[in-house]
Amino acid sequence: MSMNEVYITKTAHYFPNDPVSNDDMEVFLGMINEKPSKSRRIVLRNNGIKRRFYALNKEGHPTHTNAEITAHAIRNLFKEDPAAIKDVQLISCGTSSPDQMMPSHAVMVHGWLPESESVEVVSPSGVCCAGMHALKYAYMSVKTGDLENAVAAGSERFSRLLRSDLFESEVQKLTLLEQNPYISFEKEFLRWMLSDGAAAFYLTSKKPENQLSFRMEWIEGLSFANVKEACMYMGSVKQPDGSLKSFMDFTPEEIKDLSVLSIKQDVKLLSENIVKLGGLAMKNTMDKHGVKGENIDYFLCHISSEFFRTKIIDELAGLGVNIPVEKWFMNLTNVGNVGAGSIYLMLDELFHSGQLKKGDRILFSVPESSRFSYMYAYLTVC
């Protein structure tokens, strides 16, 4: 059975509202216990993020849903020919922060696109890798010839879950118990990392003439959940044995008092494993496909913090994978950590930068700390 070539021929993005500077973050997210955060500056100094986007106004009220943000990004793919959205055959959307548990995220996105036709939709779950899973589904659909084209998107809207009012009951309870009236660092850490936004790709088996495109050579991933416990989680509480207790097993009062619905990250587990396992996964994947450091012109690596960049470089060098820092292309500083949407936003910015030329080779690297999963893809500019 012959397989089609798969090309990314269009990319687009959408950010809600104006960018938010470091100094204005607590204006939008609020102060916990009416006191400025003690950890904010430390986290920001390490992650290097200078601005991000929130689907909130200064009163903390939402301005957009995740599905709405994603639909805007998809619609922007067809700015030059809006009617072409009617020809889309698949909408595949990944996110860590759907607006609801049911219906699925992608059908809600489709609901924001009344100008499109009735098409197949798919909603991979997960965290940062969810966007890559969405891309792989779209890629395979076109690769096998099942479809002629597809749209893949990655997005996040975590800002409402970062608001101080989600933690107030927990802090008040700790105060009454005469304990430290601050939420644990595992909950506060991510308040200063995450950003809202979306981006989308148009994939097709037909390469347009007189236009740069990306030919997708391969895409694949690896999970270490068989040997590692959960590191980042939401809607659950980690137990002493490392297992997760679901929100469904708490009373409504406990869900509120323990801020069970907040997103949390085990920082110690993260620092011990994310770079080491990622280096191993990337080395194995590159060896499998015969890709070496010199075969990469642009390295698009999703990281949550600039803190990890030198650690990744050193880890890869120790494994014989040398990717010079000048080959890295990132936009974390200017857009923040958009989770499942980050790799889409990087390629979109690179695509429209004017610096690409035919023959350039691009490697994607997307780690997911939730239970240590990794996704990689290799593209050639053509």
Can you describe this structure?
The chain has 382 residues and is α+β, with helices and mostly antiparallel strands. The protein has a domain at 7-163 and 192-215: Thiolase/Chalcone synthase (Peroxisomal Thiolase, Chain A, domain 1). Helix content is 29%, strand content 21%. The chain has helices spanning 25-29, 40-47, 66-76, 105-111, 130-143, 168-176, 185-188, 252-257, 267-289, 309-318, 332-335, 342-351; strands spanning 7-14, 20-21, 51-52, 90-95, 120-122, 149-156, 197-204, 214-223, 232-234, 236-238, 244-246, 263-265, 298-301, 361-368, 373-381. The strands form four sheets. A nine-stranded mixed sheet has the order 5-4-6-7-1-8-15-14-13, sandwiched between helices. A hairpin with a 5-residue loop joins strand 10 and strand 11 (244-246). Helix 9 (267-289) packs across helix 10. The chain is globular, with a radius of gyration of 21 Å. It starts with 6 loop residues before the first strand and ends with a strand.
